[in-house]
Amino acid sequence: MQKSELIERQSMSLRDKIDLTTERIEKWYDYWGGKVYVAFSGGKDSTVLLNIARSVFPEIPAVFCDTGLEYPEIRKFVKSFDNIIILRPKLSFKQVVEKYGYPVISKEQSQYIYEARTTKSSKLLNTRLNGNKSGQGKIREKWKFLLDAPFSISNKCCYVLKKSPAIIYEKKTGNKAIVGNLADESSLRLTTYLRYGCNMYNNSRPISAPLSFWKESDILEYIYLRNLPICSVYGDIKVSDTGFYNTGLDRTGCIWCMFGVQNDEYPNRFQRLKQTHPKLHEYCMKELEIKKVLDYMGIDSE
Asked: Is a pLDDT exceeding 90 seen at residue 253?
């Protein structure tokens, strides 16, 4: 798919986006004979996805992975739904960072740093430091100082805490995932959508991402127009001359994840956490030792 086609779809009306998303879900459901599920995080995107999916197939189960990193309000909100399956990872976040390292910067960059620090391959090390023939696959210059960090860094957290439990569930049940990813959330999700489209039937792990061509503004508009209940941490959805916005948190995800924190506007996610959930903030700063990581990166956590 060309990026121009994605841009064209992103410019469609909300009604047309809903219709196209519904069509993608129906095709996914029919292809797998109804053996599908919605990956439900309790966030805005997956709440909209579940609402659309159950509008055509009310019996679709929602699967929530309780990693221990969710806001307590998210966990409470998730449990208010019917037909919810709760998964739990084998390791805690603390065990993951002790074994592999902290998630910083991005999945890609933390992977490169982890590999550069652990590989025995001189070729891979050279690629991570200098890039391949195309100059790709390297640690960015501004982050190379993290190679000497007095703590471990890796991208393993998401896989261990979220993907692995989901994969185990899929193998046991045969159910295939429907996820609420948006292509404009990250370069990885954009690349994936342009390569495979919404329904990835032939992947080693088949996944449907039928909201890929939506934007954040579409999610907010859908919630607003349908008066759809969302988790309280997001606040209220309102509309102004510039469009739809919410009065609470923009994103939730894993409370202690540091991916992208360097790009946060003031107050960053940890400063907000101190305001809204001071006990959780104290726990992650001291017990999980996230303060030492942020201090080393030059990011204020207070």
From this structure: no
Please report, as a single letter, which amino acid is at residue 44.
K
> Which residue type sits at 292?
K
CA atoms of 64 and 81, how far apart (whole Å): 11
CA distances from 81 to 76, 85, 301 (A): 10, 10, 34
pLDDT of 1 reads 82
Q: Is the pLDDT of residue 299 over 90?
A: yes
Mean local confidence (pLDDT), 44-65: 98
Distance (Å, rounded) from C-alpha 17 to C-alpha 1?
Answer: 17
Residue 162 to residue 253: CA distance in whole angstroms: 11
Cβ 246 vs Cβ 238: under 8 Å: yes
164, 195, 229, 260, 301 from 95: Cα distances, Å: 15, 35, 34, 22, 22
Say how far residue 263 (Cα) sits from the centre of its chain: 16
User: Cis omega before residue 267 (within 30°)?
Assistant: yes
| CA–CA–CA angle 290, 293, 294 (5° rounding) | 90
CB-based contact 101:71 (threshold 8 Å): no
Q: How many CB atoms lie within 10 A of CB 116?
A: 20
Q: pLDDT, tens digit, for every residue of 172-222? A: 999 999 999 999 888 878 999 999 999 999 999 999 999 999 999 999 999
Both tokens of 183, joined, read 């292509």
Whether the Cβ atoms of residue 47 and residue 78 lie closer than 8 Å to each other: no
Domains of the chain from N-terminus onward = 3-90+156-236 (3.40.50.620), 104-153 (no CATH)
* Cβ pair 62, 180 in contact under 8 A: no
